[in-house]
Amino acid sequence: MFNLRKFKWYILILILMAGLVGIVLPSSALAQEELFVSALAEGTTFIATSTGTYRFMITGGASEVCPPEAAPDHPEWWGWKTEVLIYKNRPIDWSGGPWTPEHPNPANWDFTVGDSNLQPTYEEAEQIGKGMFVDIHLQENEYVILVVNDSKGYFWDNSGGVYFSISIVSLCDFSTEPDIKIQRCFGGIGTQCEGNAPGTPFTKDEDTCLVYGWMSVGSILHDRCCYETNNAGYWCPGPMQGDPNLCADEWAEAKFNTWCTRIGAPRQWQYTFGPYPSGNTGDDTSQDLRAPVGARVNPEYQYLCPSGSGRCKDAKGRPLWDICGFYCECQ
After folding, report:
1. pLDDT tops 70 at residue 7
2. Would you state the pLDDT for residue 51?
3. Which CATH number fits domain 31-170: 1.20.58, 2.40.10, 2.60.120, 3.30.1460?
4. How many angstroms separate the first and last alpha carbons of the chain?
5. CA distances to 10, 14, 20, 179, 249 from 23, in Å
6. Domain boundaries, the chain
7. How confident is the model at residue 11 (pLDDT cuts 50, 70, 90)?
8. pLDDT (mean) for 165-181
């Protein structure tokens, strides 16, 4: 027969022993938190208790935002998914969806995690979503709001939700911020420090917080143009996005530089960015970025050489040329 009194004394002894000898948990366990984003809630808030890069990883769950009985004539809306939208340091922007302004959906979110495709069952959606994550840098007391994508005022008939584990994963901050004024790996090829351009990998050193990546004349010009136009130029906010009348020439040069390098006519060079310790505010965008000595550049842009000019002819006075055309060698 179970003896409740003896059980309570047993637990008390364990607690006292723990206090005497100490219980040491792994640092990852101490840093990790759990969060449930209910499909019934019009936003779930997480507040950072310290500065760092937080990893929001899906550990389970799935959401149904349109049960069959709510829209019997639209089976294409039925199903389960794990997509969660995230807003950083601001309220949810309720201005999206086809039923705005009467019944708006979230819009213009800062981050997203999970899979947006509908699956026929909770189990299938959960399996797809498990392990998906997004890294977000937060200062102490900064916050994010997580929400499933549904119309405001109509969350009451939803089901399920998504479970997250949250942990600080780095003492460095290499993240791409939605704020155009915070730039990391400025002048580098691709989107900030992401290394997402073909053939130009970026390596992040978690010990030094440095980033080893690539730069070209075109990437310098395009990054500066995007910054000066408040991210309105061509390919500034994302692939094929932005005003085609702004930053288009700079983008063409950046693309040309990368293509030339891939076919054996180098037009880019390795570059070390950072360091980016936790809490950094990005690069000094006013810095005078230039091509290094020996770099091949389009003669039109030799003013970006260290001396302001380059060697454009060989010893016999012939223009320097390779498979990508004429070039100058920076001096």
Report:
1. no
2. 81
3. 2.60.120
4. 90
5. 17, 11, 9, 42, 62
6. 31-170, 177-289, 292-331
7. very low
8. 88
pLDDT at 34 over 70: yes
- Three-state secondary structure of 309-327: CEECECCCCCECEECCEEC
- The residue ranking higher by pLDDT, 6 or 116, is 116
Partner residues linked to 310 by β-bridges: 330
| pTM of the complete model | 0.55
Paired tokens of 190: 């691709």
166 near 84, Cβ under 8 Å?
no
Helix (H, G, I), strand (E, B) or coil at 26: coil
Contact criterion met (CB below 8 Å) for 263 and 183: no
Task: Of 153, 131, 197, 127, give the one whose Cα is nearest residue 42.
Answer: 153
Average pLDDT over residues 87-108: 94
Strands (E), the chain: 33-38, 44-47, 52-64, 84-88, 94-96, 105-106, 111-113, 133-138, 143-147, 159-170, 203-204, 211-216, 268-273, 296-297, 310-311, 321-322, 325-326, 328-330
